Amino acid sequence: MIYLFDDKESRQQSYGWTDERFGLWSDSLIRIKDFADYRLLNESDIFREGNIILYHESFATCIPYENRRAYQAFHETISDGSSLQDIHIVIFSGSITSRAISDNTAHVHVTDMYANLECFLGHHQKGETDFKYLLWGEEYEVEQKLIELIEGYSNDIYEGDIESDWSKVFFASAQKYGIDAPSDDCTQEKLWLSKVSDKDLDNYVKEWFTKSEYKALYIPLCFGKILSDYNGLRLAIHIRCTLSINQNKPIYIYSPVRTSFLVRSQFFDILKTRGVKLINMHPKKIIESLGSINPLTENDIKHEMGKIQLPVPQNYEDSHSIANEWAIYRWSKATDSEDSAIEKITNTIKSNLYFKYLTTIYPPSEIKLIKEDKLKFRDQLSGISDGLLEQKDINILYVDDEADKGWYEIMANIIYDVNKIGGFYYLGEDLKALSQQEIINQVVNRVKEDSINIVLLDFRLHKKDHDSHSIEDITSVQILKKIKEFNAGIQVIIFSATNKVWNLLALQKYGADGFIIKEGPENSKEPSFTIQTIENFINTMSLCISNRYKESLCKIVSDLNNNLEKGAKAHKIDKDYQKSVKLFYRMAYSSLPRFVDDPCFDHSFMNFFRIIEATANEFIDVDNPEVKEKNGTMKYSFKFRGTDEYLKDYNEEEFSEIGRKLSMTNKRLNFKQKFYNLFARLGVYSSATFNMVEKRNALTHPNSKVNYKVEPVSLEDVLLAASISFQCIRKMIENKELEDKVACQSHRKNNWL
Question: First and final CA of the chain: distance in angstroms?
Answer without folding.
Answer: 93
